[in-house]
Design a protein that fits this description.
Low-confidence stretches: 1-18
Distance between the termini: 48 Å
Order of helices and strands: EHHHHEHEEH
Largest sheet: 4 strands, antiparallel
Number of strands: 4
Helix content: 25-40%
Length: about 180
């Protein structure tokens, strides 16, 4: 679709020869793997939201909240919101896709490893392209070399599903303490 860094067809995981344990070769204990929606998935979701504009006040409010979560300051005026709700669907979609193309979104699987749990959680809380993240895997290497991976619940395109970092931290600590020697 022409988004910067769009490699929608690329895969990066065990199927193409990369090991899930690869980030741990450097001695780092914690790893975040995240996958963003592809450009086509984003376009389909935005079009679906726009087509729901005529379904009533609750739908309009939800749509505005979703678009404000995704686009932030680009929808700061009443004129912008009005265009979003009353403009021709094709024109509004074209504008939204232009704004999306300006964002640094790289579809596909990416990995980042950390030595300390605090760094891992801080990064998770500020995940790049957060509104466009659909899957997150957290991996922990125990002191005895065992590897545990947990998948966080997927976010919706608008980033509405927030992770409770305290609960994530507690779960990671429990995984890190398991002794399967």
């Amino acid at each position: 679709m022409g988004y910067p860094g769009d490699h929608s067809g690329d895969t990066d995981g065990p199927a193409n020869g990369r090991s899930l344990t690869e980030p741990f070769a450097t001695g780092q204990r914690y790893c975040i793997e995240f996958e963003c929606f592809s450009g086509d998935e984003i376009e389909q979701h935005l079009a679906k939201l726009l087509s729901a504009r005529t379904r009533g006040t609750d739908s309009v409010r939800r749509i505005l909240n979703t678009f404000e979560a995704i686009f932030g300051s680009k929808l700061s005026s009443d004129k912008d919101r009005s265009f979003l709700l009353r403009g021709r669907e094709e024109d509004v979609l074209d504008l939204l896709l232009t704004w999306i193309r300006e964002k640094p979104i790289a579809p596909g699987l990416r990995r980042e490893a950390f030595e300390h749990l605090s760094e891992c959680l801080e990064h998770l809380g500020n995940l790049p392209a957060a509104p466009f993240t659909k899957k997150v895997l957290l991996s922990v290497k125990t002191r005895h070399g065992s590897l545990f991976t947990a998948q966080l619940s997927a976010r919706e395109l608008n980033g509405a599903a927030e992770w409770e970092l305290d609960a994530v931290r507690d779960g990671i600590r429990e995984m890190a303490e398991v002794d399967i020697a």
